[in-house]
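User: Show me a protein chain along with its predicted structure.
Assistant: Here is one chain, sequence first, then structure tokens.
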Amino acid sequence: MLERCSIVFKDGKQSDVTVFQSKSVLTSEHQPSEPYGRDSQIKEIADALRPLTDQVEPVNILAYGPAGTGKTTCIEHISDRLEQETSIKPVSINCWQYNTRSSLLTEFLIELGYPAPRKGKPVDELLTKIEEWADKSRSLNAPKGYAVILDEFDQLNQKSEIVYDIERLNGNTEAKFGLVMISNQEPSKLRLDPRSESRVQIEPIEFLPYTADQLTEILKHRAEKALYPGTVTDEILETIASAVARNGGDCRRAVHTLRQLGREAEQNGQTEITEEMVEAAIDHSDQRDRPPDRY
């Protein structure tokens, strides 16, 4: 007879020991008040979008770089500031979820506040509705312009058409639209057609992988809010950061590793993350990332 496995949920923990003050700080959903190590990128993006505040067509942005380099975090930070400090409305759409021209424009119209159906309208009709709605909203003291943020832009099937659509909106409405594209791919790999490239000014802004020093500072800030004092030393954070930097500099991975180590300590009834735990986690990660001996 198989032995029955007993699972107990007690306040989400398996022991009475906790090392976490706030687990949410060590999740990908956490938005830091000031993204670390990305001041120059934030300034470039803000400068490009600033003309929107004067109802002038802005410079369109392509924020690109590997996963976990702070692209979305920085754009979300700028979006928050736009909403708080200006009359510009940020509209954020994930192109993984809305990866066709029609579905993206429909979602865009809904984000503007128009009660559009999810499916069924032709592209030309959607664009006309967006133009009408933007101009109608202008008479109601609505936003002067819109920052259209397309996350996972490389997943969009009709990139050139969407870029051209936004350019058309700027020519046909009083409100102005700025395009912010977020991509893991370099500009040369996105393959916009010549018509879009010649008519639309796009400024590429690169996000390089985080260095070990940058990751260390990010982990220190997160650990201070997420873990109780004494749970982890600066030396251990440096070890985690160095290991992640060697394997691509992905900030999400560094934060995830720290969270996993905190969970392991908690499950074992420990109040500290030890060097042995870190070494085991790094060894496991290195083995997972190591290419096979034969192809």
